[in-house]
Amino acid sequence: MPGQEAYVTLVTNDNYALGALALGRSLRDTLTTRRLSLLITDEVSYPMRERLGVLWDELTVVDLLDSGDEDRLALLTRPELGVTFSKLHAWKLTQYSKCVFLDADTLVLENVDELFDREELSAAPDIGWPDCFNSGVFVFEPSVDTYTNLLEMAKQTGSFDGGDQGLLNLYWPDWATKDIKFHLPFIYNMVPNAAYGYAPAFLRFGRNAKIIHFIGAVKPWHHQYVPGVDAVVLTPGSYSSTSAAYDFIKLWWQAYNRTCEVSFIPLHNKTFEKQIVAKINRECL
Predict the structure, then answer these.
(1) How many domains would you assign to the chain?
(2) Can you tell me the distance from the alpha carbon of 147 to that of 144, in angstroms, rounded to the nearest whole number?
(3) I want to staple 284 with a disulfide (CB 3.0 to 4.6 A). Which of 173, 179, 221, 260 is the partner?
(4) Does the reported pTM lie above 0.90?
């Protein structure tokens, strides 16, 4: 039953909370009938929690789990991804029979409640290595046993990429060959980079995208939104203003602005980032 199912995401700081605001808004706008469950760590400020609570049905504070695997994370040039191990807490949400996990840097364009018809572990291929699934969008069934087993594997084996994706692919090693029914179509986890990888396919199928996943270090909230003209000034060196990514980033900003009519300038360093997030919190509450 819909009341026993939920969309789940994880937020470990106020920066990624901005993504969860837009994600929550996009799920509400597409008229989902499922609950919205948000995992947060202590690093998320109380003003931000108040904002998140407007869109998300429940906020659950969880302990921060960090792989601490600096060597493997260095290969990805993404040292911050170690904390994504905190995603494992999602399997403890046993009040739900089934959940769909969405990374906080995703945006839902159409109702995707049909994902709850899928089984654990259903996910889309990763564009970097398609024999692995991308852990930004996946269907799972909460279970304390699964949580315990994942935690034990994390301690004993670790993750081949230092983040949650490597660990989850090790736990479900036969995903690539087991059964096609566990493979979500790319439209449920489409990355803007796909337009560069195979432009003809994007032109043919891109319009069918249902969930956009803004992978990489530069997120939509790092670009500058220009109110009044509904335009975005992209961070230098990220995307071309003529690319499909630009349109998706603008869609993200439109969703975010529906949560709060406050715009802010791009975030370039940690100190400035904290100041801007604090300013948004003050003006939106």
Answers:
(1) 1
(2) 5
(3) 260
(4) no
